[in-house]
Amino acid sequence: MTGGPAGSPRLLVRDLAQLVTVPASARAPLRGPALRELELVENAFVLCEGGTVAAAGRMRELAAHRVDGEVEELDGSGLCAIPGLVDCHTHPAFLGDRVEEFALRAGGASYEELHASGGGILSTVRATREGGEGELVAAVRRHADWMLRAGTTTFEGKSGYGLDRDTELASLEAVAAANGVPTWLGAHAVPPEFGDADAYLDFALAEVLPRAAELAEAADVFVEEGAFSVEQARRYLKACREGGLALRLHADQFNELGAVELAIELDARSVDHLEATGESGVRALATSGVAAVLLPASALFLDRPMPPARALADAGAAIALATDFNPGSAFCESLPLVCSLACTQLHLSPAEALAACTVNAAHVLGLAQRRGRIAVGCDADLVLLDAPDWRHLAYHLGGDLIVTVIRRGAVAWAA
Ligand code: NIG
Ligand code: FE
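^ thats the input. predicted complex w/ fe (iii) ion below
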């Protein structure tokens, strides 16, 4: 059962109290009852070789695997291993901050009012345009490092704070340079130099899309009053699809405008947010191939209603969880905190929450074959928790229980 190129570095994590993962046989994305069927192994080991999982199981089975020769050993006594977390929705390519806006919101100003008055997203656009490419690369690296410490071994990163050709492309390059999966959020807001959304889209599709399509995996659009209409989103997404990009949508964050139906029509990978989604949207998603990405940290940060996660899961929708890390609506890089919110606010079980930010999130990124589970042949991404039961991941609200993050078979971060 052991494999991998001879002579490649090997790492054995042994004597783990628990190892939890989605079964290797489960088909992604997990839906309905399958979301709760995790595999739990007590007194476990994981053997990593050449960046992938060569073997995993009970300690008493370890002798059956040839682990002689050079093997680095890591003592997992008293620790639990979970798959490396996958954050499938982040906005890490920005400069500056929005702490002033945060303080104004604490005093009663609404996010939508700030956005309408040229603050919000556009204030981050101004700050991001002012910096150089090197600053953007450093900022994304710093944000990716925060995510890694929080157990994220794979992250998606959107552009969308440039909204001009150079800054959008530099954002995508910065995400790739930090080993993220780049998404072109070319339709995030209408920048001030354009009179209206259609004129901006004419520019973005003619001037930015051709190169963005080479750098990014997916395209994304913010469908909302004051951002882009369903009709404008359709035009943008169709052009992006022709350019070879997978499709994502910021949908129903404040208003239910028909973005869910558009996503289904265009066979998008995901609709994200859904705080305003009603029953018909839930039903439509449940029978579609479009994943519902839930962002409870953003709803909490903006004091907005939570998305209908329980209804979506019960109806059989493919749900995923993500942070939505960004400077305005969710300055939060912690998927463990998102798992806590998923259990306390979205009424998901710890097992459902874990599946939603591992294998199902990997599915949203088109990576479910390799990421999001601890299974032979998958990338050896795992997180070690200092806890007697892996569910402390969600139970310990704001807890500091991550002791080691292993990415592609090597220790990437340790406390
Ligand atoms: O997903 N809603 C649109 N975009 C981001 C927020 C961006 C910002 O406020 O800077 C989101 O919440
Ligand atoms: Fe977002």
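The radius of gyration is 21 Å.
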